[in-house]
Design a protein that fits this description.
The protein is α/β, with parallel strands linked by helices. The chain is about 50% helix and about 20% strand. It has a 5-stranded mixed β-sheet, with helices on both faces. The longest helix is centred in the first third of the chain and has 31 residues. About 5% of the residues have low confidence.
C-alpha cells in the first residue's frame, strides 16, 4: 500500500516536472526566433510611404523577401537580428521589410516602376536589400542595391548608411 502511494506521488511529480520543462523550452524557442514576420511592414503601408514620402524623409532601407524563398530563409535569422539591432540606432533610415508574396501583381509593377534600378528586366528578385532616396513625386533612386545572400554585402547596404 505504501509502495503504491509512493510510486503514484513520484509519477505525478515527474509528470508535472516534465510538463514544466516542456512549457519552458517551448516558450523560449518561440520568443527568440528571428523571423521576417516579426519585422515585416504591410504592403499598404509600404506603398503609402513610397508614394507620399514625408518632406524630411531623406532615405529608406527596403528589404524584399518571400516567405517561400529558400535563399531568404537561409539568411533570415542573421538578417532579422541585424535589422533589429540597427533599428535602435538614431542615424539609421527607417526599414521597410516587405513579403512579396503578400503583394498583388499591380503593386509589384508600381514598386518596380517607382524605385529606379530595383527590378532588372521588370522582375523583383528576392532577397533584395536597397538603400533608396526620394526623388520626389513618388519616385525613388536606389543608392545601394544588392540581391543575394552574402551577409557582408547585405550589411554594406543596410548598415553603412551615412546620409
Amino acid at each position: 500500500m505504501k509502495n503504491r502511494k509512493y510510486i503514484l506521488n513520484f509519477g505525478i511529480c515527474m509528470l508535472v516536472f516534465l510538463l514544466a520543462l516542456l512549457l519552458l523550452f517551448h516558450d523560449n524557442k518561440h520568443q527568440t526566433r528571428a523571423s521576417y514576420d516579426n519585422i515585416s511592414t504591410s504592403p499598404t503601408k509600404v506603398l503609402k510611404i513610397l508614394s507620399q514620402p514625408s518632406v524630411d524623409q531623406k532615405s529608406l532601407i527596403l528589404v524584399l523577401y518571400k516567405n517561400d524563398c529558400k535563399y531568404c530563409k537561409k539568411i533570415e535569422k542573421p538578417v532579422v537580428q541585424e535589422i533589429q539591432k540597427l533599428k535602435g540606432e538614431n542615424n539609421k533610415p527607417p526599414f521597410l521589410v516587405l513579403n512579396l508574396n503578400s503583394v498583388s501583381p499591380r503593386q509589384k509593377v508600381m514598386l518596380s516602376k517607382n524605385i529606379l534600378d530595383l527590378a532588372p528586366n521588370q522582375r523583383l528578385l528576392t532577397p533584395t536589400f536597397a538603400l533608396i532616396k526620394s526623388k520626389g513625386n513618388g519616385y525613388w533612386q536606389a543608392l545601394k542595391l544588392y540581391s543575394g545572400t552574402d551577409l557582408v554585402r547585405i550589411k554594406k547596404v543596410i548598415g553603412d548608411n551615412n546620409d
